# Entry
Amino acid sequence: MVYNKENLEIVSKAIVDNLTPDLIPKKWQQRNSITPSFGHCHNASACLQKVFGTKNIKLYRALDEQDIWHWWCIDIDGNRIDLTSDQYYKWNRTPPYEQGEKASILGWGYKKRVFELLERVEKVLDIK
# Structure
C-alpha cells in the first residue's frame, strides 16, 4: 500500500478498530479492560510497519515510568505515529518518547499476534 496521509488515516483506524484483548498477553488483559489501548502498542506499531514497509515506518520503543515497554512509529518524514498513546494521556501520563530507541518487531507469540492483527486489517481493507 502506498504510504501517504490518507492511507495512514485509513490503516490506523482499521488497526485501532481491531485491537481486542485476545491479542495481548493474559497478564495485561485486566489492565486493558480499564484502558483498552493498554498492551497493544507493539501490535499496533508493528502492524502499521507491516502494512507500509520498513522504508516508510520505523519502530521505536522505550521503558516508561512503570518499567513497561511502550512502542510507537516514526515515519519517513520524521513524524511520530502512536496509535495507543491514549493509554498515557487518558491518565495524565506522558509516553516515554524522550528515551526512545529504534527497535525491531518482537518474535514468538508477539509476532504471531501482530500477524493476526495484520490479517484482520487486510480483510477489512481488502488488501494483501
The chain is about 45% helix and 15% strand.
